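Q: Please design a sequence for this.
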């Protein structure tokens, strides 16, 4: 039997239209149906409903603007309210977590969570109180809280109980200070060490900074050189 040249040609790739045609049912001729979209974890929530739910939960109204609600809770209810916001209000996205040092009044921790489907956001705050530095971890509720809490611990010294791996994320292990606290001076920690090893500004640092030697690296502090800045800048830096 002779074989024509056309019959010996390699088969071409199946076109998109052909592949689409093969998805049709051979019996009904209808295209195979696409899988249903994933269901929303919660029913739609309006801003009025969110306010009402918060009022029922806390016994106090939420503050803030219409699209940016704010509530303050005791530290013991911090994790509980985060779970309520996620499961009941649909706020499944943790936007940020940080803290504020109010000096004598203590540290305040805040977290902003959002319902991206219904455009509802909620900022939750809690005050730790003077001398208190422990707060419940939200990692069990929001996985994204992991590194945010590590940064908060690094900068403010807040220890999040229940965190799976609470350690510094910016400063090195063993660093003895927390740079974002109000008791951390801009000029660095005082030291009795005499003149430092070099006098020129550190490369790529953009300023007249010098290094205070110490036996252990964790105890070395950057320090600004005396009279290196204009007088008005030095005076403003010394103001409380």
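A: Design:
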């Amino acid at each position: 039997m002779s074989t024509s040249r056309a019959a010996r040609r390699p088969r071409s790739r199946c076109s998109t239209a052909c592949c689409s045609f093969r998805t049709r049912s051979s019996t009904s001729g209808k295209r195979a149906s696409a899988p249903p979209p994933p269901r929303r974890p919660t029913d739609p929530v309006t801003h009025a409903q969110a306010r009402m739910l918060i009022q029922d939960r806390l016994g106090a109204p939420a503050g803030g603007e219409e699209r940016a609600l704010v509530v303050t809770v005791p530290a013991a209810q911090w994790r509980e309210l985060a779970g309520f916001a996620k499961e009941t209000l649909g706020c499944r996205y943790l936007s940020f977590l940080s803290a504020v040092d109010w000096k004598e009044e203590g540290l305040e921790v805040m977290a902003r969570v959002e319902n991206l489907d219904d455009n509802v956001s909620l900022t939750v705050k809690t005050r730790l109180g003077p001398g208190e530095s422990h707060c419940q971890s939200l990692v069990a509720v929001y996985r994204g809280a992991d590194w945010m809490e590590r940064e908060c611990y690094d900068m403010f010294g807040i220890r999040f109980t229940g965190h799976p791996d609470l350690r510094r994320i910016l400063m090195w292990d063993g660093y003895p200070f927390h740079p974002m606290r109000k008791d951390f001076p801009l000029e660095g920690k005082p030291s009795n060490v005499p003149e430092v090893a070099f006098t020129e500004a550190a490369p790529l640092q953009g300023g007249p900074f010098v290094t205070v030697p110490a036996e252990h690296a964790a105890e070395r502090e950057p320090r600004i050189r005396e009279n290196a800045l204009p007088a008005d800048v030095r005076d403003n830096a010394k103001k409380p």
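Q: Thanks. Anything notable?
A: Residues 1-6, 15-28, 196-208 have pLDDT under 50 and may be disordered. Residues 149 and 222 are 25 Å apart (CA to CA).
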